[in-house]
Amino acid sequence: MQSFLEKFRQKYNYMGIVASLEKLRYLKVLIIGDAIIDQYHYSSSVGKSPKDNIIVVKYLAEENFAGGVLASANHIANFCDDVTLVTCLGKIDPWEGFIRKHLKSNINLKPFYREDTQTVVKRRYIEPNTLKKVFGVSYVDDYELPEKTLNEVLDFLTVGKYDLVVVNDFGHGIMDVDIIEKLNESGFLAVNTQTNTDNLGFNYITRYNRADFICLDEPEIRYACQDRYGNLEELMEFIAEKLNCDKMIVTHGQYDTLTYNGGFTRIPILSKEVKDTTGAGDAFFSIASLCVKSGMPMDLVGFIGNCVGALKVRTVCNRSPIDKRELYEFIRGVL
Fold first, then answer.
1. Taking CA 133 as the corner, what is the angle to CA 131 and CA 138, rounded to the nearest 5 degrees?
2. Which residues contact 103 (CB under 8 A, 6 or more apart)?
3. What is the distance between the alpha carbons of residues 205 and 298, in angstroms, rounded to a whole number?
4. CB under 8 Å to 136, separation ≥6 — which residues?
5. For residue 125, is it within any domain?
6. Residue 148 is part of a domain; what is its CATH number?
7. Taking a C-beta distance cutoff of 8 angstroms, is the pair 38, 64 a contact?
8. Structural domain contains residue 91
9. Into how many domains does the chain fold?
10. What is the pLDDT of residue 170?
11. Could you say which of 61, 108, 153, 255 is the most buried, measured as most Cβ atoms within 10 Å of its Cβ?
């Protein structure tokens, strides 16, 4: 890390980085993707039931978070003044009051509704002392959007009036093929397609045919390329060519972040205190998208993204979004 920082300091300084981040406020952003309610049920282990072959936990407390694209919109809204959020809620149990209460005031929420289901809820049972996840239950109906809902979303999307469109695709229904096609009209399109337990094998970046910036983790790009052990740089070049995308980042969790823009740069991670990794990749992607659109060099984008990630893993789930003043202080400390 020290050798990287020595070279990095020769190119960039704290005041210059802050000035670049301050300019992000003028970007007009549309973010679209799946709304998720993250539920943490804090539970202590009781043990194995003497009558059934199950593990029993004792309920202690619960906490609900605005997750998925809702969390990403909150991150962006701390850096940009004008944010429009498009998502889909379920009429049966929409959680709309909770969602509106937990969104930043400068987010223009445009929800669309499907009559046949509820808003996505992901419940995780958590050991409270270590914050380790014991098991989870998903309330997800991720089949195709009803035609009425799809047409309403398509009628609303006038993507040309935004400086950039950010796609947070969790594979839970809203990113229909017709909506993806519509987003090709965007002047700048940033895409993250997440692989998770509910969509494994069905939500790859190759569902898209273009992007200006792509951000994935290593398993997500390997799944998309159907290549378990191949050279990661070659896989990135393959996806970049396939989607005609010249800027890409692949994160590695505890390992270096790899950026691409014709060439490759490795950025060391900066996380020392890890409380909860949920949502860290989404926070990285959200802020990195703004930085790429603003024209920052990719090594700087990767550095800022890793600073964002280091702050995010200190927070339980999506309890609070990335605060830019806190980010500035973190960057100052690193430099």
1. 135
2. 66, 70, 73, 74, 77, 85, 109
3. 20
4. 122, 123, 124, 125, 197
5. no
6. 3.40.1190.20
7. yes
8. yes
9. 1
10. 96
11. 153
Domain range enclosing 274: 2-34+68-117+144-334
Give me the sign of the Cα torsion angle 150, 155, 159, 165. negative
What pTM was computed for the model?
0.95
Q: Tell me, yes or no, whether 123 lies in a domain.
A: no
The pLDDT profile of the chain, 335 residues, written as one tens digit per residue, is 788 999 999 999 999 999 999 999 999 999 999 999 999 999 998 888 888 888 888 999 999 999 999 999 999 999 999 999 999 999 999 999 999 999 999 999 999 999 989 999 999 999 999 999 989 999 998 888 999 999 999 999 999 999 999 999 999 999 999 999 999 999 999 999 999 888 888 899 999 999 999 999 999 999 999 999 999 999 999 999 999 999 999 998 788 999 999 999 999 999 888 999 999 999 999 999 999 999 999 999 999 999 999 999 999 999 999 999 999 999 999 99
Residue of 297, 222, 304, 213 lying closest to 257 (CA atoms): 304
Classify the phi-psi angles of 239: left when phi > 0, otherwise alpha if psi is within -120 to 50, otherwise beta. Answer: alpha
CA 123 to CA 277: how far, in whole Å? 16
